[in-house]
Amino acid sequence: MSDSIRVEGLCFEAIIGVNPDERLRVQPLRFDLELQIDLRTAGRSGKINDTVDYDQVAREVIALVQFRRYRLIESATEEIAAMLLGLHDSLESVRVSVHKPQALAHWNAVASTSIVRTRTDYPRREERSRFGSVEILLETRDAGLYLLHVDPGKRIPLHRHRVMRELEWVADGELVQNERTLPQGQAVTWSHGQVHGYENRSRDRATLFCCDCPPFIPEDEVDIDGAVTR
To answer: Among residues 40, 81, 39, 44, which one has the least CA distance to residue 60?
Structure first.
């Protein structure tokens, strides 16, 4: 497979680094992505659903990196690769490169890291839940990446967290929150104590991407009546 989509020079600011001063300020970063995908169908159909929307990919990467506040750029590349392969089924492999211009600025140099990952690098497992199922994309010491599949007529009850922070967006289908159908791909973060929940009123399964920091803690995700939501 030689077809690919490239996103080169994606630049934005985020907290990243292990030094104490780096934990207190954002700094500029550059990301280069190469997505291996068969483009023959899209080339003939002219339909966006037959390929990968690179604007959506860019927004997913920005949302994850700015939410996570990574200590290592190695962690950023690993989680980005797992996320993209989990969210976009048509991808065969991804190359993720992260450049950190200020890390070696005193040497007039740029630090970077680059990885290539395929689907076999991230064995996925699925667990049943009362709203449908949870697909585990990747769990590290610091975070967990998940796809929450909400069956038709089911809901993730209103709940809150005392320990975990969450980043979420609707990846597929329709979910309702506060009587409003949420737009796909619109990222939202939930801090400690914020109450939130989702309902699937459609006839099709809906999927919510979720990043938990730290990885999912069952006893920390409780609904407002005190019951465990998953």
So the answer is: 81
DSSP string, 162-182: SS-EEEEEEEES--EETTEEP
Q: Please give the structure tokens belonging to residue 40.
A: 């023959």
Helix-, strand-, coil-residue percentages of the chain, each rounded to 5? 25, 45, 35
Which residues are identified as catalytic?
100
Residues 29-41: tens digit of each pLDDT: 999 999 999 999 9
Q: Per DSSP, what are the bridge partners of residue 10? A: 31
Reply yes or no on domain 125-223 having CATH 2.60.120.10.
Answer: yes
Take residue 222 and report the two structure tokens written for it. Answer: 């409780």
Is-contact 176 138, C-beta < 8 A? no
Q: Per-domain residue ranges for the chain?
A: 4-121, 125-223
Q: For residues 174-189, give the mean pLDDT.
A: 96
Task: List beta partners, residue 59.
Answer: none
Domain 4-121 belongs to what topology? Answer: GTP Cyclohydrolase I, domain 2 (3.30.1130)
Which residue, among 144, 141, 133, has the nearest Cα to 167 in the 3D structure?
Answer: 144
C-alpha 9/C-alpha 96 separation (Å) is 12
Q: Are 205 and 149 in contact (CB under 8 A)?
A: yes
- Give the separation between CA 135 and CA 44, rounded to whole angstroms: 33
